[in-house]
Amino acid sequence: MSRKGVKLLVDSLTRSSKHFNKSEVECLVNLFDTLVAKARSDFAGVGFNRVVFRDTLHSAFGMTDDVALDRVFSIFDRDNDGCITVVEWVEGLEVLLRGTLDEKIKYCFQVYDLNGDGYISREEMFQMLKNSLLIQSADEEPDEGIKDLVEIALKKMDHDHDGKLSFTDFEKAVRDENLLLEAFGPCLPDIKSSMSFEQKIFRANS
Fold it and tell me: What is the mean pLDDT of each run of 10 residues along the chain (206 residues)?
């Protein structure tokens, strides 16, 4: 992209950005270009694929859960074409790094709603918890412990008692107790890795 093209892109992204200033958007665009180069033109220079995305989130934020990373990719990849564009990259990172509680509630709910039907079912809770909990137990049946956790979560969060969590259930539970935001496994960077990512990326280009 020409220098003028990059400037127009940065200006446009800065205008639509809720949480990043112009120099920060510029840094994220530079990082995006580096990642696209790494992706070896699978998408002719317009974006990068799932593998590069997962590697980046793993190295930047220590995110390792494959199921969660696949869901995060799907949330970033709004048009569902398997390619993260620069707009999707900047808008996705806004929520990941600087999102409001509202934005993060919506994001975490989408991660946990594995089949996208608008509910977090018992099966989805079980799958997310099983993936995120490294169960090193002598128990014959570690699955039983996870099933118990699912029932505890439902008891606490399922306000309309229909055996699954709607967005309204999830939102109410998290507003009452913010720690429940990542109840079914980590899907946001922790504060330490967010800060070190920001320092590294924003300072490196300032």
Answer: 82 94 95 85 76 94 91 95 94 96 97 96 94 63 87 96 97 96 94 94 72
Kindly state the greatest CA–CA separation across the chain.
63
* Structural element, H or E, at residue 119: strand 119-120
Give the pLDDT of residue 120: 98
Distances (CA, A) of 96 to 17, 63, 74: 13, 12, 14
Name the DSSP class of 113. -
- What would the DSSP string read from start to end of 19-39? S--HHHHHHHHHHHHHHHHHT
Q: Tell me if 188 sits within 8 A of 60, measured CB to CB.
A: no
In the three-class reduction of DSSP (H, G, I as helix; E, B as strand; rest coil), residue 44 is classed as coil
**In the block, residue with structure tokens 């190295």:** 59
